[in-house]
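Can't paste images in this forum, so I'm doing it all in text. The chain is below; anyone willing to post the predicted structure tokens underneath?
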Amino acid sequence: MSELTLSRLADRIDAKRDDLIQLTRDLIRIPTTNPPGEHYEDCARYLGERLAARHFDVRYVRAEGAIGDSDRYPRANVIGRWSGDASGPTVHFNSHIDVVDPGIGWQHDPFAAEVVGDRIYGRGACDMKGGLAASVIAVETLIELAPTLAGNLEISGTADEESGGYGGVAYLSERGFFSRPRVDHVIIPEPLNKDRVCLGHRGVWWAEIETRGRIAHGSMPFLGDCAVRHMGAVVAAFEAELFPLLAGKRTAMPVVPEGAKQSTLNINSLHGGQNDGLPSPLVPDSCRMIIDRRFLIEESLDEVKSEVRDLLERLKTTREAFNYELRDLFEVIPTLTDENAPVVTSVANAITRVLDRPPEFVVSPGTYDQKHIDRIGRLHDCIAYGPGILDLAHQVDEYVGIEDMLDSAKVMALSAWELITGERLAG
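Text version of the structure:
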């Protein structure tokens, strides 16, 4: 190990360029679309077989009973562990294998993994199969050059991050896969740009608001009570009261992009009345809205919920026959890793050395699987770092840069070295 240098590590990773490209393309070509959760087992097996061939102890874990798990769409996860010659710290690289639906409007086949210049196009290229591939190359290279490391390296491919992670990291966290003493440090190769260390994310509360009315014939609406009009009053109150209130809330968290430094609320969907392709001559007696509220570490979840509930209660007193139900769907508390945590320091040092510039410390506007590692696993030495441009995630013609993946692999390998050995690798 004493002969290992940063330049030797970087040269070996550069020499694996073709392997990295092929691995990324193979992963993209497995269409692990979620929902419903297609081809998870195929992707987990592909990754597991590669790791097993390189002397990893590989485990496959199905999240039986988790949301979405079924015999048709099993929530398959894979964890590979390489153990060094002596006991020591464990560094874990966790990537989700699921991708969102490609949508329409692509110029490139979303699952062909076309290579054009320095880019590999495809659904999941950026978010986050490019990051998964880079972490695999990083760990494999480190093992080849330092086979007597006194520590452990893990790679996982997990399910369902795009739908909350309950069939993936949450399930595994509940079973000790992301807790000490098994794991000490976690790096999640999400696409936050290769010169950024992502310390955490904002909070989220999803809820459903249903307004109630009274059904009647559409030609005689005066005999009914229109639930859609009641929901219109909710939207108007949001515009007049809630959106201005949220715009005034700012955070000290380094959230990117700039617009996410404030509290936000998105009206995710709105459905009212009966319409199955043909109009129905009825006054709608129900209207449902899904809201997606993103909140700051300075806010409490109780405060966030009260703002909406209080607004609805005020409408009950000011609007005749207004009636509603408010139902919780999903909630996550904001998380923020300390800038002085070992994993932050090591990744920051590696970025500086590999890219020859200091990193930017950021917080993600949306949540990712760090929430489960933090809250369930009680492991706080966790960050997101990986290749890919954040703004490309979930877009049409999503791509990942090949040079970005190579640079990120170097950062990951150097970070893992420092976390395991506690030493600075010579130039």
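The domain at 203-332 is CATH 3.30.70.360 (Alpha-Beta Plaits). The CA atoms of residues 5 and 404 lie 21 Å apart.
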